[in-house]
Write a structure and sequence with these properties.
9 helices, alpha+beta, seven-stranded mixed sheet, two-stranded antiparallel ribbon, 11 strands
Length: 302
């Protein structure tokens, strides 16, 4: 039966990591596993990327995403992967890097008195560990890994570290955003990578600085396209974020010239009922280019 693995009676997914998937692609993956040398998950993921053309819009093999997809197939019984070569495989947590937490020194001046204000892109394992720990301790949503292509920053001044902000993959479907853009589903699927989601924004609790949040959003907007172009070979054209109603008013996004386009339906990614199951959030967007609609509705990837 098309779409079903008869040996295990497990349904083959129609999509994998946002791409069409079928029996032929599953068989190709099994063939690459059979001939992989060395027989490890990293090498299999690389071979599958080459075989199936799993590339980023910038033309780079999506090895990390492939590993996630292969693990899903493995756990569903559709393929059999070799044991992980590192102790943190099979979903176990990575070892924590040592973290040097910043001093909790009060900062209580307006943003125009924060001398040396700057963004620092997070690149090292040590900085990444600090970012994760700060979110665990001080962000109301805690820490979860960002999805897809991403960039994270610290922001600091001469007085020390002030906070952190992270951008990752955009929401797959979002009616208010898609209506604002004028997207059809097939075009959205092709160009969704050109939108980034501001998934985390943390100003450390001992920092009280008027207009700091909107200033950081402005600094990010001025450099994030260039950073993504260097990292991934393409530049995003639109930013999005969600602001939980009743908890925040979205003041900094409004001050930063973001546009309020609607609300989520409160159903979340895996909610199967028509009634809200998670808090409703306001949807804010920020165009990085004036011609963002033309690019997002283009028939060709950029």
């Amino acid at each position: 039966m098309q779409g079903t693995n008869s040996a295990t009676a497990v349904t083959i997914p129609k999509r994998l990591l946002g791409r069409p998937f079928d029996c032929d692609k599953l068989e190709a993956i099994r063939e690459e596993i059979a001939v992989a040398s060395p027989l490890n998950r990293e090498e299999i993921a690389r071979k599958v990327c080459r075989r199936l053309g799993w590339e980023s819009p910038g033309g780079r093999h999506q090895v990390m995403s492939a590993k996630v997809g292969l693990l899903k197939l493995h756990r569903s019984g559709l393929i059999s992967l070799p044991p992980p070569t590192r102790a943190n495989g099979q979903g176990r947590r990575f070892r924590d890097h040592p973290v040097n937490m910043p001093d909790e020194k009060k900062v209580e001046v307006p943003v125009d008195q924060l001398y040396g204000l700057t963004l620092l892109r997070i690149t090292s394992a040590e900085d990444s560990a600090l970012y994760n720990e700060l979110l665990k301790r001080h962000h109301y949503l805690g820490y979860t890994p960002l999805a897809g292509a991403q960039v994270r920053y610290f922001f600091s001044c001469d007085q020390g570290l002030l906070g952190a902000i992270g951008f990752g993959a955009a929401a797959w479907k979002l009616s208010s955003r898609d209506c604002f853009i004028g997207w059809e589903p097939a075009v959205r699927e092709r160009n969704l990578h050109l939108i980034l989601n501001n998934a985390r924004f943390l100003i450390l609790p001992w920092v009280r600085s008027k207009n700091l949040a909107s200033k950081i959003l402005s600094l990010c907007a001025h450099r994030i396209a260039d950073d993504f172009l260097k990292l991934y070979g393409y530049a995003p054209v639109l930013l999005e974020t969600f602001v939980e109603q009743g908890r925040f008013a979205g003041t900094c996004y409004r001050a930063g010239n973001w546009v309020l386009v609607g609300q989520t339906k409160g159903r979340g990614k895996k909610h199967i009922y028509k009634t809200p199951g998670v808090p409703i959030k306001d949807v804010w967007l920020y165009p990085l280019r004036s011609d963002f609609r033309r690019i997002l509705n283009s028939e060709r990837q950029r």
